[in-house]
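Q: Fold this one first, please.
A: Sequence and structure below.
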Amino acid sequence: MTRPFRFGVVAPIYTDLPTWLDRARRIADSGYSTLLMPDFPLLQPAPGPVLATVAALTDLRVGSWVYASPLRPSWLTAWEAHSLSLMTGGRFEMGIGTGRPGIEDELRDRGIPGVPPPSERLASIRETVTALRDFDGPDRHTPVAMAVSGPKARALAAEFADTVTFPLGTQPRAEIASLTANFRAAGTIELALAIPIIGDYVAPHMAPPGTDPAPFHAADAVIALPDDPAAAAEEIQRRREELGFSYFVFGADYADRFAPLVAKLTGT
């Protein structure tokens, strides 16, 4: 089954609020599916209030990209996710993962004692999704997007996730095809690809500060796209055909430039 394209935008707040809200409205008018907020405590406003505001002002879906599971108790994340699903009329998608590179130092900086090992972080994700399903009950299903890497995380995603994304770098496409193969065979889970690099641009909060785009373009990395929208559209179609990705996530600074591409590929 070939899934239809959809496109999301990671939109951290770097301007005054009226300017940022104007951007959110433009994103909503440009054919994008989802506005996403990163989970960077103290560096950005908390995702919940921001996403609820966007959902009230636009018809966009909204989501966390992604909650870092060690930063808060499982029940608290689940409660917030269910609350957002309820208050947005079912337009919230909970993205969750075990934490970005360097999360250990961030936990120490936040005064969170006892940095949990990866196995406990996966267990926390399971607890979070289980609690979310309990909060939702039989009449609601909050979609879950999981960021996964190793085999245990992929197995957990196969059990619980609606959408799966992978933390990728310069891996060969054959290796990425192997990562996506089982999910593609099952056909029940959407595959998402975050694109932090477009031309010489690196999206904030989607790649480490100081990332050099050149090695990614030289390696034909799937997380990089050319600056030209027509060439980017060809690459996006290629990545769906060869690897199964149908949900593409950009940084907000390219949302306006790529709006015609999104309209073309989504038929809007």
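Q: Good. Now the second chain.
A: Here it is, same layout.
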Amino acid sequence: MAKQKGFIKLEGSLGGLTFYERNGKSIVRTTGGNTKERIKTDPAFRRTRENMSEFGASAAIGKSFRVGFSSIIKTMSGSIIVGRIVQMLKRVNTVGTGLRGQRSFNFSVNKELLEGFEFNSSKPLSTIFYAPFEAPTVDANRSEVTWVVPDFNTSNFIKAPLGATHFKLVLNVTVLSDYVYSRSLGRYTPTNEAENETNGVAFGNEIALGGVVGNDTTLVVDLGFGAPLPLSVAVVCAVGIIFYQQINTEFYELSSDNAMQIVSVV
């Protein structure tokens, strides 16, 4: 890297050199890097193009995934949630069918790659909420999802953050379609666009910390489908807990130690 000392100030590239200004000083360096056009057309960059196609699709599908949890994801997730979702989806793509750069995202047959995902990586649900429960159940259409948590003692089965007086249990359900590469469009598209991103969330009542709940907690999400969902979509079920502090008659949501996990994909 060199500095310009002449009185003529140049910007841009000329004769293999690039001229620019940084921190008030004029800098010159050799032109390097690969042009966008070369990456798009040069056979030497075929693998790069394949990786860009699949990574870009993972990011785009990640946005659809986040739409399904849009009403609660900020409450439950850590600061690196977007990148972690993309990584999870890329793992599904890695085992997909098709040529590299066009491998499918088959969520419906790779459910285990989604199950267990923690929205808050620093606060896994199992380290906050210990009460025994079964995975949510679904009806024949995969439209109505029900989660039942048997009565339990909050003093024994919840690790609450400092200042918390109450908590809510949460059930969030979303539909995630498989995605395939369309050669005619040059991009990935959902196999079932009409059902994709359909979602719902159910919140329990505020429950006081300390002592037994007093009854079973039942949460139900109805996605509204009147017929069985196609096999090429996955119904993603996540459960979680949100903490509150009661001041007088108001409940204020706490920003720490809330947790949510994908417990089943059906």
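Q: Anything worth noting on the second one?
A: The first helix runs from residue 36 to 41.
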